[in-house]
Amino acid sequence: MFANEDDFNAAKERVNLLKEDPGNEAKLKMYALFKQATVGTCKASKPGAFDFVGKAKWQAWTNLGSLDQKSARQKYIDMVQQLLDEQGVTVDGSTTAEAQSTEQFKTLNVTSENGVYKIMLNRPNKKNALTFDSYNELVKALDTAGKDPTIVLATITGAGDYYCSGNDLNNFMSATPDTMSDMAKDGGVILNKFVSAFIDFPKPLIGLVNGPAVGVSVTILGLFDVVYSTNKATFVTPFSALGQSPEGCSSYVFPKIMGRAKANEVLLFGRKLTADEACDRGLVASVFPDDKFQKETSRLVDEYAKLPKNSMRLSKNLIRSNDKDLLHKVNDAECELLVERWTSDECVQAIMNFFTQKAKL
Ligand code: COA
C-alpha cells in the first residue's frame, strides 16, 4: 500500500518542523525524492560546470533512475518521518523534551529552552527530599535529555530554600520486619539505576546548588560535569549518624577529587562543608553570592549551550570513558552495602529517632 497525495502533502508540511538542518546529503536525497514523486524521472539537462549546487541536485535526482512516482512519494514520506524521529520531534511538532516538560512529573519541574534541559527538584515543603518517584523521574528526565538531539546540556537545581535534603526517610517507613529485606533490595535496584543514569549521561550536566544539600544529593554531585553553588549552600552526608554508607560513587570520586583525608572527614564523619569549603575541595567549581546566583548561573549556562554541542558531548565522553566501567562497579558495590545497611539495627533506629524527634516538636 502506497501513501496517498494527502500523506505526501502532510509530509511536505512536516519538513518545516525539523529543528535542525539535517545536512546536505539528506537534503539532496529529499530534494531528489520530491522531484521524482512530483515530476517523475529526471529529463532536465545537466547544469553547467560551475553551477555546483545545481549539479549536485541534478545528480541526486538522476540517480533515482526510473523509480516510479508512487514509490518515490512513499520514500519521501518515510524519510521525513525518520528525520523527525531522529530529532525527537513529536506529532505536534514539539521535541520529546518539550513534550515532556508539559507532562506532569510528580516531584520535578522540567522545562527545556534553547538547548538547555532544566530539571528542578520540586518538593519544597519537604526540602526536596527524594522519594522513590523522584529517583525514577530523574532517570526518565535524564534519559529524555540524553536522547533528544535538540538538547545540548542539562541542569539540576532545587525549588525553594533547599537544594535537596537527600533520601526521603519515609521511603522505608512503610516497611515491616517481614517486608524490610525486600524493600531494601528494591531500594537498591532503584538507587543503582539512578546513579547509573548519571554515570552514563552523555551530555554536559551542571549542578546549580541553590541551598543546603544533604546525603545522596551531595554524593551524586561528583558525577556532574560542573557544580555551581550559592554561598548559602552547605554540603553534608550524615551516613554514619544514620547507620548508612556512601553512595553516588562518592566512595571513589570524593577521595579522587578531595584527597583521602578530606573526603573521609565528609564521608565517614559527616563533616558539613560550607560552599567555600566545597569549592576548595574541588566538588564545586564556583560560589556565587546568593542574590546573584540565579542570574549569574543562567548567564553561564546559556553561554555554554551555544558552544558546539557535538564537541562538548564527545569531549565529555572522552573524559568519562576512562572511569566509566569502574564507576559502574563502584555503584554496584555501594548499593550492595547500602541494601545491607538499610536493614541494620543502627539504620532502623536512626530513622525512627528522626521521626520521633520531629513528632515531639
Ligand atoms: N526525608 C523525609 N522528610 C524530610 C526530609 C527527608 N530527608 N528532609 C526534610 N523532610 C521533611 C520534614 O520531615 C518536614 O516535614 P513536615 O513539615 O511534614 O514535618 C519538612 O520536610 C521540612 O523539614 P524540617 O525538618 O521541618 O526543616 P528544617 O529546616 O528544620 O530541617 C533538614 C531541614 C533537612 C535539616 C531536616 O529536615 C533533616 O535533617 N532532614 C533529614 C535529612 C537526612 O538525614 N537525609 C538523609 C541523608 S542520608
Could you please describe the fold and organization of this structure?
The chain has helices spanning 5-14, 24-38, 52-62, 69-86, 96-102, 132-147, 180-200, 216-219, 250-258, 260-267, 275-280, 290-305, 309-321, 324-342, 345-360, and strands at residues 108-113, 116-121, 153-158, 205-209, 213-214, 226-230, 234-236, 273-274, 286-288. It is elongated and about 85 Å long. It has two domains: 5-86, Acyl-CoA Binding Protein; 102-360, Alpha-Beta Complex (2-enoyl-CoA Hydratase, Chain A, domain 1). The chain starts with a helix and ends with a helix. The protein is an alpha/beta fold and 361 residues long. It has a six-stranded mixed sheet, sandwiched between helices. The model has no long low-confidence stretch (mean pLDDT 93). The chain has 15 helices and nine strands. The longest helix is centred in the middle third of the chain and has 21 residues, at 180-200. It binds coenzyme A. The site of coenzyme A has 16 residues, from loops.
